[in-house]
Task: structure prediction
Amino acid sequence: MKDFDPTEHLSADDLEKILRLAAEIHWDLGFGELRRGFMASLHGVIEFDTAWASILHMGTGDLVLELVEGPADWLRDYDTFKFEDPLFRYFLEGKRGVVRMTDLIAPEDLWKTRLYRKIMKPNGIAWSMVLGTDLLPGIGCGFSLRRTLGRPDFSDRDKAVLVALRPRIETALRNALTYAKLDKAAALLTELFRREDRGLVVADTDGTVRLINLRASSLLGPLPSEGSGEHGPSLMRLPEELRSVIASVDGTARGERVRLGSGLSLVLRVEPQETTEGERLFLIEIEEDAAEGGRQALKSRGLSCREIEVAELVALGRSNGEIGRALYISEETVKVHLKRIFNKIGIKTRTALIAKWHEGSRFFSERA
Result:
């Protein structure tokens, strides 16, 4: 099969539809909800008559089919002829990605097969396209679209849509799988995944992302990925700064403040979790460092690092004595710093300093 570049076949309108659909499917948690929701939403982008989801055991060739949309009569007999299906053989060989039946076999050759004569033609099926990926080691998952006789084959543009959506689907499947394993934390995950003020990531011991919500994705930005070749799923990895935190966590939850390479400062809460299968994962809550906006605002006014430290402690309600003890300086030195801070900002009171600090926090948070 020749290389396929989806960008050559998608219009600006297509890309807008894909982005809307990707936003809808990326964060679904349940397998059933994902399958039904994805297929229903996909109708607005690709025309098809029948859709089904499949689970394929690579070692035995066992196939579990679930009809999502369309008539189901032909599914009962498909297992008898599945090894004549070029799409089934393609994925059984361990290949992954988006492929049409006609990418693998010429129509005139397909029409000679028992699969076509016994299954496809009697049920009015003419054309097929499948998005296949890995669900677990040795277990594949596929989403199959079918068109009836009398309709055209799936176009390059239709294929490009599924290629573009593939990374989102793979992430959604990992979300669903991880969510199912973490039944002990199911209530917490359900609550956090629906919140917009806090990011949530579940990662394994080497920093591979198993589950991520919209807020975390927004805060972390594009994540590095591995294994994103044509025949394998892409695996998102946490930034190095977060992987270092995971590596240092023992058996108890801990809080950390980290600064990403982008300059964004985050506050993390990392909690080890054991899955129902004994696998160790990490539940990571992520929030933007509320103090970072204040620091940036005061830095832009020319304050030194020490003056910013003093201002932050003032914003936390500390007295001059408490600030001095925290920074190992005398109260007189604290007063000198405060005088310089007031002059640089153009204020006269601690209350005004606190207001400027929080004003800066809101300003920089809105810009992020």
